[in-house]
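Summary for the funding panel

The consortium committed to producing paired sequence-structure records for every protein in the target list. Below we show the first two records in order, beginning with the earlier of the two.
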Amino acid sequence: MHLNKTFNWFKKNLFLDHYWPQYLTIFSLIIIVSILFPQGQSLQYAYQLNDISRDPIIAPFTFPILKSADRLNKDLEDKKRSVPFIFNRDKKVVNTQIDAIKNFFLKVKSINRANSRLTESRRLVYERKYDKQYEKAKLEFIADSTNLDLLLNDMSRSYPFTLEKNDWAFYFNSSNPEKFQSHSELVIQTCRNRWVEGIYDIPMKEIVSDKVTINQGEVPDLANPDNFNDLESAWIKSKKELMTYFKVEDRFLNLGYDLVVEFMKPNIIYDKELTNVRQKESLDKVPRSQGVVLKNELIVDANMRITDEVLLKLNSLSASVEGQRYQTGMLNGFKGLMGRIILLSVIISLFFTFLIIYRKHVFDDWKMVLLICIIFFVQIALTHVIVIRMEWSEYLVPITMVAMTLTILFDARMGFIATTSLAILMGIMMGQNIDLVIVSLFTSTIAIYNIRKLRKRSQLFITMFSLMAASIIVIIGIGLFKENSFAMVLRDMQFLLLNSILAPILTYGLVGLLEMVFEVTNDLTLIELLDFDHPLLKEAQRKTNGTFNHSIVVGNLAEACAKAIGAHSLLCRVGAYYHDIGKMAKSEYFIENQFRDNNKHDKITNTMSAKIIRSHVNEGLRLADEHGIPKIVSDFIPMHHGTARVEYFYRLALKDAEENGTKVDESAYRYPGPKPNTKETGILMICDAVEGAVRSIREPDIFKIEAMIDKIIKEKIADGQLNDCPLTLDELNKIKGSVDGTSGMLPVLRGIYHIRVEYPDDPKNISNK
């Protein structure tokens, strides 16, 4: 019985029936993140260089001292160099390429002979032009020309490099074909010389071993890598050798080099698979440790500076503790997991409690909770990969990207609270790394400040430079405080500057993607909706010019009211621009669009008039859906009237009913709703009613306008239209503004109607009249 009462209390106060997708998503985030977190015991030994130890640290068991990453990499490189790269000398390559060179020159000779025959045929055609043998000579000329074309086409297909230089055409038509044989022999001999020396099939720079093994007989040869050529060095040697045979002005010098490049293939082939196997066998034998720390040995005393040597031992101890996690019993593992879950729940609840209390409309949408949880997970996962797995600098973790993303998608307060929670999580994840927490909070605050009211894309670049300046300041401050070396300060600064440059760029792309997937609307989208070239606004301006002008004025009022109470002023203006778009369907039935004396409502019943007036809400929602207007904007369409009555026609109906002795169905005169549920929609409801009412005042002055505003606000409160809206009485006063103030509604209306504030009781004002 008692358990049922407790469960019912939780169910009632936490809205488990309605919010179970949100709670399930948050709990899943906690479970996943707890798996990525290191074991709690290993965090006891997590320190940074130059930190001061909090307590004495004594080895709980004997463990090996792991080599530092730099030393281990050096040992592995040394070992890798000691394993010779293995190559196989391939004799078939030499024979194949020699045959290819000979075949090339055979084709050259065929082309040369064909050229000679064509020249002779051409001469006979001219000589026998008036002879009875002319036709025969002409046919032979055509046949020889066709044969030459076939040979040239075959040459260009087989050897495309011959098309790159005009010298080849001259060479094919050489008047001294006896040179072809000597040229062929010279090219073959040049290539043979390189093949005898040996040509690698990989660049020389890729051979990192001190020796190479060449398999070219029963016993492999062990030699220095530079005893052989790679392809590029072989070409250079061949070019120099050809220059000893030919003069610089000889055309065949460059042509011969082309043939060397084309036909001289590597004959020492890298056996990558066997080399990798031997390297792995050798690298596996490299010791990963450089000594041991015995059980109960003092690693560092309390209040001592953490040096490189001590830090190496502490990191080794943390790794050993982490490695023993899988060897302990299930009970200890379960206890550690539960501890991490509880700790993470406490920290993550900081943000989501803020969300429930101050941003309930965001928490109400399970997709927004899922979006936030995904952002949290990606941030923690990146921290795990960058810092724990890859052992890179913690300053490469893009914490400012999360701050900017949430600020752009939602608001600055959400961005700051989320950043605070994540900074604490990452600090604990890396062993109470207070440096990271400080840097994350400072740089993220700078980013949030610069991006909090995003109106121009240029703000992203301003944010980039601000982050770079903030990074320099905070890194220098930490370095001076902890007396870090200049090299360490410079290294951390470089990482943080890189982060500062990339974060705004990546944020811009990420925001666009998230906006599309999760249907979130940011300020840049709202600014695009303000463009009068938007199809809906252009059509509204054409069809309902009076309503359009009314919307512009209401937009000015709503924006001023929102600024007065710190609400979303840009959203208020955009909502005002689109709140009456449904009037385009039957614009002539709305008084602001009637420019003639005839009123169409005079010919229909009051009930029908009210129905037509009310229909602009549903019609507006339909148009908004067709044109892809975001929901956060289309919500203004039904909420700016809420469930209020169409008062004018309702009163006419009451009058007719009184005369006829009938009853009036009030529901037929009420808008479908819903009522405003945000400050912004509540502001628009008030501004829309005020703007229409003020226009009806004859000879308006500031006091009449103020009285009208008070009347409308009281009517809205009395009718319950603001019951679901979080506006307070103090905020309603700020929305109205003061007669001689600069914020709120009154100063805007004073400017629209060009009213000078005058106080009749003031003698100075009386004398000025």
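The next record, for a separate protein in the list, is shown here:
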Amino acid sequence: MFNNYIKTAFRNLLRHKAYAMINILGLTIGITCSTLLYLYIQNELNFDKFHTKSDRIFRVVEIDKKSSGDNWFYGQTTPALAPALKAEFPEVSDFTRAFKRGGHIDIVWKEQRLHERNFFMVESNFFSVFDFKFTQGDKKALNDRNSMVLTASIAKKYFGQKNPIGELMDFAGYDGMKVTGVIEDLPENSHLQFDLVFSQNTAFEKWSEYLNDWSSYGAYTYLVLENPNQIKNIESKKAEFIKTHWGDKKVNDFYLQNLENIYLESDQVQYGVSDLHGNKFYIKLFIAIAIFILLIATINYMNLATAKTTHRAKEIGLRKVTGATRSSLAMQFLIEAILVAMISFVISLGLIEAILPIFNEISGKHFTFSVDSFLEIVGVLFFITILIGLVSGSYPAFYLSALKPIECFRGEVKNNFRSLFLREGLVVTQFAISIIMIVATIVVYSQLNFIREKPLGFDKVNMMVIDINNRNVRNNFQTMKSEFAAIPGVVAVASSSRVPGEWKNIRQTFVKTSKESSDSLDIYYMGFDEDMLSVYNINLLDGSNFEGNILTDSTKVMINKAAADALGFENPIGKTISILRMGVPVKIIGVLENFHYQSLHNDVAPLIVGCWANNLQAVDYFTLKISNANLKNVIAEATKVHEKFDNNTPIEYHFLDSQLDLFYKKDQQAGNLFGIGAILMVFVASLGLFGLTSFMMEKRKKEIGVRKVLGASLGQLYILLTKTYAKQVLIAFLIATPFGWYMATEWLNYFAYQFTLTPMVFLCAGFISLLIALSTVTYRVFKASVVNPAETLKHE
């Protein structure tokens, strides 16, 4: 019996090839896209869950409660915190800490000057808490002093095919480090990302003192609880703990953040172990896209199956007369739907493998199509396929199996009100989803374009930023600055501790309006030399710039307008403020126009600009303003200048506009996925609409012939046959607009600065949807309208 169902299903598909192709193509696109999005969503939701203790590992996040009422969250803690928590809270079974001394480490290896940035110094139990897979060595690899563990890629980089175990490496500041272990390259879905780790018991001057200092910071602290539910016990007792150990010092509070939540719930956490974090809103949108595109493909099948009722009426009548029951007919139609879905499933597997590299490039992921990865998703994919078949075939099965034989043989099969209403409702749903996706795409690209075009308050084009990674460079930076300026094509040069549009952590410092004041503000700080304002074209609203005199400039600062407002100064020029670690009060000599020194996701925060010569933060960058000269020559000459003063580290540079784009990389990737998703949804919907129109024109060809005989023009026929679709688009527009508005405003709320969302966006989306609908049906309508009515009526 089952074999008969399959044979019949194949015969029907071969008999109605166009119908089969439309359904198979639509479902193939739906399954392929939903599978790729499933991979993306699964990757985002499973960050750090590969650790066996992931539900029991918690990161400690410190909370600094500002006098303004704001809370600032820090991913670093005092190193003394972890052992105290372990000693005083029986709920804590273990802890581990990671540290980072400096932004990079240098090494001369085989006469090459190299540096590494992705490194940590960790405790010996680090690999007992976190489950990274060892290829050589084991979890005790860091038990000995001066030991280190490499990832497979770094081991290959330095040792090639040679066994690195037991080899010594002399990094600057980490001499005589022995390789005691090699781990697999870290999974992409880990918030901890590093290339090498050193044992914490490596000897450093005053290290023990630092580990027990409650006023120091810089530890990334992770606790392992006996039971994840015990976090409530810690929360109830931590107030007394804070009072005992910190008293009235800076820390107001802390909370424990589960390891599995770090990636998706760290938007507000500063100074974390990594800037890598996800966005829950994007995950929700991608889930919606996957569901929408499957829904549209399913709707296509249901619409086409019910629309072609008349083509299968005699078959249904004959089957019923020969004894077929309603249940057997329903089973036949369900098997047909499942068969179409299974064919689409098989095609999708090949398509997924082919386009996976393109999807990786668009999404920023690194998925591979292997036996292991296939086995991980095949069960889910197969389930989705069967579900699609059952859902898409359910209504046609029960509707077609209910037809009466006498109606079938007399040709009196008509779509009843319920089936017509359902079909029109499904078409409206398709249009509504398409309009929502078109709105989302327009909004995303408008916002990203707004970000690219928005004036930041400084010049970002043709700015070559060179990192300072060596003390000798800092000691001679003024000489280097002069030599950089002498390079042909370099217009001007400036030095600073940080640059506008900074991507690294920007220093914060306590500021008081006077020494006697009890109130203080935590304000961002940068150190500029006297050329920074002119090189970056930052506007000075009031007062004066630095003079270039170390003695006088070191006691002066400039502030931005936001800082002047935060400090409560109407006329700040000449006012003095006290800055932590500056030693002496400093005088405000200038007020800068607010410029966006951070991402446009954030408001412009208060900023103090001090002279490079003060003791708060050393110079860390050269900025070379370049003309449209030979860029390769500028880079080559700048490299020579750098090598002259730095024999240990290679030159490290980037261009500011490219670096700023990284702020919005995640948004750009989401925008690309929105755009592609919208195009595919519209295509699948158009595919179904084209097939549906073909059936409708076939059904109404006698009516069209009669109308032509009675004098109807081509234009009148076109309006008559397309007005239904225009009405459906209008209804879909009214339904989609509030949903689109909600989605757009929710996404835009992730940016402090937004383009103006106007009704024109929605009108434009509605017009595009109408244009696509009319373009889709025009061919079939025109073809039906130009047929000779004599031929039509003769055959009828």
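Regarding this second record: Residues 463-663 form one domain. The chain has a mean pLDDT of 83.
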